[in-house]
Amino acid sequence: MNLLVICKASTQIGFGHLIRSRTFVENAIEGNMNLDITLCIIGDSSLKLLLKNPAITFLFYEDENQILLTKSYDAIIFDTINFNKSVFDKIRFNAKKIISLSPVFNLMPFVDICFNRTQYWAEDIEKLTLKKYGGFEYALIQRNCNRIHSIIYKYGLEKRYFNIAISMGGGDAANKTLEVIKQIKNIIEPFTFWIMLGEGYSHSFDEIVNEIRKVKKHEIILAKTNHSMWNVLSNTSLLITTSGITSYEAAYAGLPTITFYDYDNQWFLLKELVDTKLTINGGKFSDNSINNLRNILTDLYHDRSVLYDMHKRSKKQFDNEAANRIINIIKEEVFKT
Question: How far apart are CA 291 and CA 181, in angstroms?
Fold first, then answer.
């Protein structure tokens, strides 16, 4: 089977779609010998730092208008929120099926199949007639995201200065990281905070360092990570993050999270994690919700059993077979009579 995966990434829109597409391709080719997949990335050349797997065929374009397909595919798989309609119309007939790995896509009415990491859908997508597959079983988990052993997790949780990670996205265009640091410095209880800065973080490090200098009660460690991100996170007891893929990876690993979201129409992506008590709802990111973060952390410091229960609960919800499930469904749809 011959597939083309198209995704977009930048500091402004984030790297989540690229990471998910890379994860899908890496996991899919590992278990399927007769699979030919090309990963097409739309963005600047710096994104090559995130793509070091020699087993994957990559195409790079700075702009989607540059895409020119010279062959046909069994399916073209999009992982992006927005795509140029005129370019889409030119390439859609190069494939038997059009698929989206993103549950939010401006061209969803023209998609045949969509896969979603949660059973919930946006209202406008719910009304469409395309085939929809949703649930934790379709959550794509990075290969270097490993489950945290309960003995190790409990040991870390019992430390006086227990470790909390803050990861607000690979690009963090709005610089939420800085806003969170401004709030945590006033918490009385002692913590060790790991500030995770992705490859795309382009804001001034001086601002963060200056803010950290004002912190007296806590230890704060800056970590600029890429492939080693989960090596660090696996040694923490709690992750503060946004409503992207990382919240689902953390649930798979057994790392409790406090998750914020930016817009009301993103709530559906977080709802199932909240319903199953796999994350704590941080609320819509704002001054009020960030102020409340201090109260949440104080409560958790004094009652850590909440976090340990979340850790144990998460292990029953996820496996890491999403890529194979998706490939099998695509095969059925492409080759059915």
Answer: 11
Residues 187 and 158 in one domain: yes
Residue 152 and residue 168: Cα distance in Å, rounded? 25
Domain count, the chain: 2
Half-sphere exposure in the Cβ direction for 317 (13 Å, CA): 28
Contact 144, 124 (CB under 8 A): no
pLDDT tens-digit profile of 263-293? 899 999 999 999 999 999 999 999 899 989 9
How far is Cα 162 from Cα 155, in angstroms, rounded to an integer?
A: 10
Amino acid identity of 61? Answer: Y
The answer to whether the CB of 79 falls within 8 A of the CB of 7 is yes
pLDDT reading at 49 higher than 80: no
Same domain, 237 and 93: no
> What burial class does residue 75 get, using C-beta atoms within 10 Å of its C-beta: 0-12 exposed, 13-18 middle, 19+ buried?
buried
Specify whether 105 is located in the same domain as 161.
no
Is the pTM higher than 0.90?
yes
- Same domain for 188 and 102, yes or no, is no
Q: Is the CB of residue 245 less than 8 Å from the CB of residue 117?
A: yes
My answer on whether 114 and 199 are in the same domain is no
- β-partners of residue 95 are 73
Q: Which domain holds residue 92?
A: 2-141+319-335
231 and 113 within one domain: no
**pLDDT one-digit tens code per residue, 101-150:** 999 999 999 999 999 999 999 999 999 999 999 999 999 999 889 999 99
